[in-house]
Design a protein that fits this description.
The chain is mainly alpha-helical. The protein is about 50% helix and about 5% strand. The chain has twelve helices and five strands. Strands 1-2-3 form a three-stranded antiparallel β-sheet. It has a two-stranded antiparallel sheet with strand order 4-5. Helix 2 packs across helix 4, helix 3 (about 60-70) packs antiparallel against helix 4 (about 75-95) and helix 6 (about 140-155) packs antiparallel against helix 8 (about 195-210).
Length: about 325
Amino acid sequence: MIYHELFLTNDVMISDFLKYLELELNRSKLTVDAYGRDLWEFADFLGKDEDMPDAERVTTTDVRAWLAQMARDGLSPRSLRRKTQAVRAFFRWIQKQGIISNNPAAEVQLAKIGRKLPEFIREQEMEDLLENPILGGDPALNIRNKLIIKILYSCGIRRDELAKITDADIDFYAKEIRVHGKRDKTRLIPVADELLDDIKEWQTVRDSLYSFSSPAPLICSKRGKLTGRAIYEIVHKQLMGTGATHKSPHSLRHTFATSLLNSGAEINSVKELLGHASLQSTQIYTHLTFSDMKKAYDAAHPRSRATRTPEPPDHLKEDN
């Protein structure tokens, strides 16, 4: 992607900042591309009425005016929030280099977005799915596709993390899978004996069909490891029989986390298993479990309004 170059004092450019994000902070390509588009748009906005101003001349009013214009155009709060973060990070980077003394975006309030509770699949639905998966015409691929569902549900990993797993990442003796997460961070996920048996079964089938150099990708086709998109399509098809609105690998990740917390797992342990950088990301699942507990209370507890038998009015009560 070619980025518009906003020249600032000391020859600082947007492209320099994007290289910093990619090479030094190890941000994903999606993040770098999104920040590049946002900063390019801001540069164009600043150049509408006058020559492109340098860093010292950009004000908080400029940032707010840009965001206000996009809000009037109907841009979503989520997108406005990201654009604010992009500009804030850009000027913070310039500030650290001593080029400016104040970050003009530092005091700009982030747009508030309503956080939706992640959707999960009910336990009985998951059991039914694992017992009766949707089968295709190829028995080998049926084994692989069922394993995809089992790993995502049992380990709570992301689809791209699943795609990266090779035989070298599976430790049958320690009963662990090494997962390569965001920003090249790795973590170990414990694996139950039943899932390890399923993995061995698929490896035997895979090796009889395909020839890969070692270490072989675990989830693959004859062309090599499956892409995240291919895994999404397989999961989406398998979840068609469930009541989930969003039939995706992430729904299985949500189900994994919710099941652990409902069973009494400690939240910091769940955080580590999910590979969350912040506990705040994991805490969203506590809202889910609390909601479920409240429903259970309302449905079953003798002091719950939902089940309490209303007393008859006074004129119908018998005298004692």
